Amino acid sequence: MKNKEIKILLSAPRGFCAGVERAIEIVEKTLIKYGAPVYVRHEIVHNKFVVDDLKKKGAIFVEELEEIEDKTRPVIFSAHGVPKKIPLDAENYKMTYVDATCPLVSKVHREAENLHKSGYHLILIGHQNHPEVIGTMGQLPKGSIDLIQDEDEARGYKFDNKKNLAFVTQTTLSIDDTREIIRILKERFPKIKEPHKEDICYATTNRQMAVKSIAKNCDLFFVIGSRNSSNSVRLVEVAKKSGCDNAQLIHSQSKIPYDLIKNSHTIGISSGASAPEILVENFIKDLKKKFTVSINEVEIIKENVVFKVPRRLN
Q1: How far apart are CA 113 and CA 107, in angstroms?
Q2: Domain over 104-200 is classified CATH 3.40.1010.20
Q3: Is 203 a residue whose pLDDT tops 90?
Q4: Distance between CA atoms of 238 and 218, rounded to whole angstroms?
Q5: Per-residue model confidence (pLDDT) at position 2
Q6: Residue 258 neighbours by CB distance under 10 Å
C-alpha cells in the first residue's frame, strides 16, 4: 500500500475567508484587552479546532446571554450575526459586547432593513435554523420576512400582492441552487426586487468555483470542514454536481477512508471558509504516511480581501 502513487489536486482558494479571520482576531484581541475569560455567544465560526483553540486561550462559549454567570465580562457575537434583540439584551444586562458579525452578513442585514422601511415584504433564501438565517430574520418584525429553502418552497410560496416583494439570501449558499430558486421566484413574481449586488459572499463563490474547476478530474473529493458549516457542506454538493460522485466531508470525527483512496488515482481537496489550513496540512501528512503523493495546487483567483477589527480593540 505504501508506494501507491496518488495525485492530489489542491483547490485554491480554500479555507479561511476574511470574515472568519476577523472574527477569530476579535476574540484574541478581546482576550488581550480585557483578560480571560471572555464569553462568545454561539460558536464564533463553525469549526471545532478553532473553537477548542480559543477555549484554551480563555474564551467561554454559550448559546444565550442568560447562561453567562459573570455579566461584568465582555461577550462577543459570532461571525454569523445575531437578531436585533441580542445587542439590546446585552445593553439591558449592562454588558460590554463586541460584534464579530461578518461585514458581508451585516450588509444583508442593512439591505433587509432598508427594503422593509421602503414597504417591501421580504423573502430570505436560506436554511432554517442556521444562525445566519436566525440573525437576518431577527432584524425585522415577525411576519415581515419569510424563509424559502428550496425550489419546491419557491414554487409553492403564496404572497398577497398588495405589497411589493423583495428577496435577500444567506451568504453561504450554493450558487447554482440559489440561482434556480431565484429563477422560479422571478418567473412567479416578475416585479420582485433583487439585491443590487449578489448576497452570496465572494469567498463562498470563489471556493465553489475552484471546486468546480477540478472535481470532474477527480476519482475522490474531500472537503475539510465541520458538519454544521454551511459553506463546507455546500462544497461537497458542488463537487458531486460537478462530476465527482464520490465527494465527502472530513470533519473532526472522520476516519480517513484509506481503502477508497487506495483505489483512486486523483483526489481533490478543499476546505470550508471556517477550516484552518493546518487541518488540510495534517490530512495530507496522513496520506503521505501511506502513499506516494504528488500535489498540484489549482488556483482560480487570488483573494486579497481584509476586514478590519473594531477600532477599540487595537
Answers
A1: 10
A2: yes
A3: yes
A4: 13
A5: 53
A6: 15
Architecture of domain 18-101: 3-Layer(aba) Sandwich (3.40)
Give residue-wise pLDDT tens across range 71-88. Answer: 999 999 999 999 999 999
CA 82 from chain centre, in angstroms, equals 14
Average pLDDT across the chain, whole number = 95
In the CATH hierarchy, which fold is given to the domain comprising 5-16+202-299?
Cobalt-precorrin-4 Transmethylase; domain 1 (3.40.1010)
Report the C-alpha gap between 175 and 194 in whole angstroms. Answer: 15
Q: Spell out the residues 6+ positions from residue 187 whose beta carbon is closer than 8 angstroms to its own.
A: none
CA angle 276, 55, 93 (to 5 degrees): 120
Break the chain into its structural domains and give their ranges.
Answer: 5-16+202-299, 18-101, 104-200
444565550: which residue's cell? Answer: 64
C-alpha cell at 199: 448576497
133-146 pLDDT, tens digit per residue, is 999 999 999 999 99
DSSP category for residue 139: T
Which of 28, 43, 111, 132 is flagged as catalytic? 132
Q: Do residues 95 and 74 touch, judged by C-beta distance below 8 A?
A: yes
Please, are residues 124 and 157 in contact by the beta-carbon 8 Å criterion?
no
H/E stretch holding 240: helix 230-241
176 in Cβ contact with 234 (< 8 Å): no
* 25 annotated active-site: no
- Round to whole Å and give the CA distance between 59 and 74: 10
CA distance 151 to 185: 9
Burial of residue 296 (number of CB atoms within 10 Å: 0-12, 13-18, 19+): exposed
pTM attached to this predicted model: 0.94
